[in-house]
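Notebook p. 47: complex prediction with zinc ion.
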Amino acid sequence: MSAHPPTDRPAPYARFRHGSFECTVVSDGLLEMGPARDNFPTADPAEVDALLVQHHLSPEAVRLNENILVVDTGAELVQFDTGVGTDPALGRGFFGPGTGQALPALRMAGIDPGDIDVIALTHAHPDHAWGLVDPDGRPLYPNAVVALHRAEFDHWTDLGRVADAPDEHRKDHFRGAHKNLVPYAEAGRIRFLDDGAEVASGITAVATPGHSPGHLVYRITSGGATIVCWGDLCHHQVLLLQRPDWAFQFDFHGPDATAQRRRVYEMVDGGRHAVLGYHFPFPGLGHLRRDGDGYAWLPSELERAVPAEPAAVRP
Ligand SMILES: [Zn+2]
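Predicted complex, structure tokens below:
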């Protein structure tokens, strides 16, 4: 019998300093992806399984985090992506009740959605953009401008593409993006970002089309250090870092997605930048280390609070 009380779970947010910026990562929850081998149509299934087992991960039940970064630059509050939302007909309805937790997690972290100035979207896929509105289509970030690449907005809000989508889930990609983005467009609160555009002081967009038509990653620089917030450039801390050439089933254009992965990995490695991985183990902050033809993931240590009680003095 253990004398320990039941385990307290860590809060669904984490906070760290980046130069003069205060960063908070809030969790929207966990996406249960099932067997990983089903998501990589070009890979040898046995090799996918073996790589996961080697890294102490289950080949049958791959879980992806949704790490939403909020950066306080001192002048503006910038949030990167929004999670799956709570619409029973869309986000949570598809991804399950363990997701769609961004707003309560934000509030636990002391952040009021009404204080967010900019929502910078990496792209408009369900798990990134479907948390912009409530199930009735009302904006959940009443004072935010939504920034994304124009190609991303134009593609996914085009309901004329629904008829040609191969299944209901992929039809919903268009319906959900339209439902979430159009209310902001109608309110004049969409801003289009080109490659190199400045989102806020120290934060710039890098065009990385491939996983989606207008995918962006963001460089966040303060105090001479840079974090690259990379959305779906890479979905998994083992599979697509070790094997950058495997196509992910939801890549819009597989060869372009692979080329962008390699390009950004080299940019991060060459600049010795940190990475904030949206789908990586919470909170998703770390570095890359070259490993064979790919990279290994090195999670960063976060500073903890110091107990208020004074440390015992040794005699
Ligand atoms: Zn994603």
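Notes: The chain has a mean pLDDT of 94. The helical segments are 45-54, 91-95, 102-108, 126-129, 150-156, 168-186, 239-242, 254-271.
Next step: compare against the earlier run before touching the bench.
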